[in-house]
Specification:
The protein has 86 residues and is mainly α. It has one domain. The protein contains three helices and no strands. The chain has helices spanning 4-30, 33-42, 46-83. The two termini are 20 Å apart.
Length: 86
């Protein structure tokens, strides 16, 4: 029970990192949204490239904010209590 908040916090952090890394992997040929981005850049489709970039930005920000909020709810109180010397 004591480890569960930290375990979930670590899971959320890794999920956030994996969302960001998936774009990079796709750009080097692993498929997914990164490949779509690479192809749209290579073919000169500026509007599609901007749309993909915007979607990636929104997704990364949303995952980052959700992850930070959940980590704060799960671990934040304990971390702040330890920082105050309680």
């Amino acid at each position: 029970p004591q480890v569960l908040p930290n375990f979930i916090s670590y899971f959320l952090l890794r999920f956030e990192i994996n969302v960001r890394a998936s774009t990079i992997l796709g750009a080097v040929g692993a498929g997914g949204i990164g490949e779509s981005l690479r192809l749209s850049i290579g073919r000169g489709h500026e509007a599609k490239t901007i749309a993909i970039d915007f979607l990636l930005f929104c997704t990364i920000v949303a995952v980052d904010q959700l992850s930070a909020w959940l980590r704060h709810r799960l671990v934040g109180r304990q971390a702040f209590a330890y920082g105050r010397g309680e």
